[in-house]
Amino acid sequence: MKIDGACHCGAITIEGEADPQKATICHCTDCQTGTGSAFRLSVPVPGANFKMQGTPATYLKTTAESGNPRLQAFCPRCGSPIYSTTPGEGQQPSYMVRVGILRQRSQFVPSRQNWFRSALPWVMQLASIRQNEKQG
Ligand SMILES: [Zn+2]
Ligand SMILES: [Zn+2]
Predict the structure, then answer these.
(1) pLDDT tens-digit series, residues 56-65
(2) 136 CA distance to ligand 2 centroid (A)?
(3) In terms of DSSP H, where are the helices of 36-110?
(4) In angstroms, how far is CA 73 from the centroid of its own chain?
């Protein structure tokens, strides 16, 4: 399906195509730190149809677990995570786009949870935590 999205401040917008079945949660500690949250939710977007307006800031992070360096891209103004990809010049084969920046975010239901061994212990009990329809 076609996707489009923007960072929180709007300086960076993206477009592309993604398969909603391929959304993946990552509970690894790098993703917890990189999002400032409990886990990361991403979906792969082929480089061939990935378009971006604006220039993200990037850093390379090699995780001890996988040993593969990943280029992490985020908005330099508001800090929203945009994607990760393989390091290198020019268009890359695939971009792991952060689902939370997509306008279609509600249509991406994750099909897999990776690095569950470092998942925060309460994530499986979200439904039992008191819910306020708006700010409580
Ligand atoms: Zn921004
Ligand atoms: Zn991760």
Answers:
(1) 999 999 876 6
(2) 30
(3) none
(4) 10
Q: What angle do CA 76, 81, 83 make, to 5 degrees?
A: 110
- Read off the pTM: 0.94
Q: Report how far residue 63's alpha carbon sits from residue 34's, in angstroms, rounded to the nearest whole number.
A: 12
The rounded Å distance from CA 75 to ligand 1 centre is: 5
Q: How far is CA 100 from the centre of its chain?
A: 7
**C-beta neighbour count of 58 within 10 angstroms:** 16
- Residue 63 alpha carbon to ligand 2 centre in Å: 9
CA atoms within 13 A of residue 3's CA, in its CB half-sphere: 32
**For 4-61, how does the pLDDT look when each residue is reduced to its tens digit (9 = 90+)?**
999 999 999 999 999 999 999 999 999 999 999 999 999 999 999 999 999 999 999 9
